[in-house]
Amino acid sequence: MKPRINIITLGAENMERATQFYEQGLGWQKSKASSGDIVFFKLNGIVLALYPAHLLAEDATVPDEPRGFSRITIAYNASSEAEVDALIAKVEKLGATIIKPPQKVFWGGYSSYFKDTEGHLWEVAYSPFTTIDEAGNLVM
Amino acid sequence: MKPRINIITLGAENMERATQFYEQGLGWQKSKASSGDIVFFKLNGIVLALYPAHLLAEDATVPDEPRGFSRITIAYNASSEAEVDALIAKVEKLGATIIKPPQKVFWGGYSSYFKDTEGHLWEVAYSPFTTIDEAGNLVM
């Protein structure tokens, strides 16, 4: 098994609302591979998918039970503290819930968490210790 | 906010067990950026991190409540049905729980789900409709 991930799928309670957030809100372009119940966004190599939560549970053959903490977070690295502030202001306008306002954190960076419209946790952070290459990937 | 994800962090109940699964088990190489409580694996552009679940909850400022379905899945695309079978046999030996044995699925592919040692859902699938480029990324 090679060190790679191809698709991250976020189960959505409301596909229209979720698609609105990522496509119209963030301006991410839907892949032509999207069809029927599934929406794909091609990111930096990996693909982000949105899929109705109950169908994702059915596909994985697990019960779609109410969540506590998913124990998974997805991080977006920004290029400066100001960019973190600007991105958090933007997603809040788009209907995201700000869970942890931008702040200096123990590891020396500047970080914030929001929940997207479906409750998935995203961290938006700036780290003075890493840079981002042209493809948008962390150099580490 | 550009279309990208930099880090996926999996909260671990037991860091030693989780690291054993990904590092010694799957043979993924730990990044030198790993330190203290956090382990990083550099994948195809994005980074996979392992971090104690209770500290991840603390970092995100959310309660570390027991989970139902996280509503997030991570997919690994294999190159053939036989490779799906082989990978599932391998992770089972490494202590993963096979949730959905490899099988033909409604969208025309061949798919399987397992939970890693910490309970995170991975799909291992073969799709006859997509190819994988040299970097390990889906062409779609």
Give a written overview of the molecule.
Two copies of one chain form a homodimer. Chain A has 140 residues and is of the alpha/beta class. Chain A folds into two domains: 7-60, 2,3-Dihydroxybiphenyl 1,2-Dioxygenase, domain 1 (Roll), CATH 3.10.180; 74-139, 2,3-Dihydroxybiphenyl 1,2-Dioxygenase, domain 1 (Roll). Chain A is built from three helices and nine strands, in the order βαββαβαβββββ. In chain A, the strands form three sheets. In chain A, strands 4-7-6-5 form a four-stranded mixed β-sheet. The two termini of chain A are 22 Å apart. At the A-B interface, strand 1, strand 2, helix 2, strand 4 and helix 3 of A face strand 1, strand 2, helix 2, strand 4 and helix 3 of B. Strand 1 of chain A pairs antiparallel with strand 4 (72-77) of chain B, so a sheet runs across the interface.
Summarize the structure.
Two copies of one chain form a homodimer. Chain A has 140 residues and is of the alpha/beta class.
Taken as a percent bin, the fraction of beta residues of chain A is 25-35%
Largest sheet of chain A, order of strands side by side?
Answer: 4-7-6-5
Largest sheet entry of chain A: 4 strands, mixed
Query: H/E series of chain A, N to C?
Result: EHEEHEHEEEEE
Structural class of chain A: alpha/beta
CATH class of the largest domain in chain A: Alpha Beta
- Tally of helical segments of chain A: 3
Low-confidence stretches of chain A: none
CATH A-level architecture of the largest domain in chain A? Roll
